[in-house]
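User: For a benchmark we're assembling, each entry needs the component sequences followed by a predicted structure for the full assembly. Here are entry 17's components. Please fill in the structure.
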Amino acid sequence: MNQTTEDKIKEAALRVFIQKGYDRCSSREIAREAGMNVALVNYYFRSKSKLFAIIFESVMQDFLKSLVQVFGSALPIREKIKILIEREFEFLSQHPDIPNFVINELSRNPEVSKDILPTLEKIYESGVFEEAKKLQATGEMRKMDLVQVTILILSNCQYPFMAAPLMKVVHGVSSETYLHLLQSHREHAVNMVLGYLFPNDNSIPS
Amino acid sequence: MNQTTEDKIKEAALRVFIQKGYDRCSSREIAREAGMNVALVNYYFRSKSKLFAIIFESVMQDFLKSLVQVFGSALPIREKIKILIEREFEFLSQHPDIPNFVINELSRNPEVSKDILPTLEKIYESGVFEEAKKLQATGEMRKMDLVQVTILILSNCQYPFMAAPLMKVVHGVSSETYLHLLQSHREHAVNMVLGYLFPNDNSIPS
DNA sequence: ACATTTATTAAACAATTGTTTAAAACAGAG
DNA sequence: CTCTGTTTTAAACAATTGTTTAATAAATGT
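Assistant: Structure for entry 17:
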């Protein structure tokens, strides 16, 4: 508990912003969550929106961390994709509401995305896209736009967590049951995506 | 333009609610969009939340319509899934922000989902789940929880539209380019999902 | 034509919002 | 202790929120 007031506000803001979004929470709620007066929030961060920008950027770093690390590694591309999916499931198990948060705030105010461009550069510099193009040229990897490859991978990682409220209603399952289902879903995501992207591999799944 | 005042409010509310969500818009904004006074909104619908409940329920009907219709049809299950995916892409092309809207509002207030239970009943009554279980027993269909089957299908339909703001930032593509990509993505979704759910089918894709 | 219900408006209500101000509590240095 | 700068607080600010009220306009029936 040896953290500074500034950090206490940041932690509270992180919790509140992610859980409720920028517009659905008030400065006073953040202050209350941090156990202090409202004015302190503006004393340290000048405004709610400036505080949000700081929080959002750090969330984005976390959100893209696996992507940058895995794609920047020296593994073969199949391994990259497999590990990326597994890491995503791990991350999302602990932060299931971050994808919704990120997408909502990006569409609310596209300007907040400016800060993450340097992070994205790292992915491009990793050469993973050139690697993929080569494998596509030899026919080893299915030919499709690399944007679609990203969509394919992230669809099967993030959506299952994002859609939890919907799925629980549609299938009438409890939160615990659903989270348990998602654990076994990870392998399906890996097998399906790899099987589709590399149709010549004979993994003979189950 | 022969529509009643009540309908004008409903239409305006539909647009505003879907685009911005319940909390990010005001009663006055809805009234302005409908071209009339604020008090009329409450005159016809008693409160913002009651108006929202009506709008949300009708959106949910649209949102689940394909699911109910296709699963309730007499087609073999492979055709059901194929047509469902194609219908979803068609629907989402015209209403790309409905999935985000539905999921956000469901997690904001899970109570709003009470009204759709009768609609969901129709899906269960269609017998599609029993049909799937039979095919799983014969080994023709991959064995996995049917909740996961739903996740698998909807992941590859809804996420690509939901994640548009994120993908546009990550890959630096324009809205037009992205929407065009999604069109060709539909076939990938069909082939991948069917290929994974029915591994013995030799569709020999591309 | 008049009377009565319905539809619409402008204005006001209290509550909450983000932000600022001015004063108090606290800290450390001399 | 005293001075000085930093941290924290309560109070106030104007703006906006959902909702209500009371008055006006339009429509309806007789």
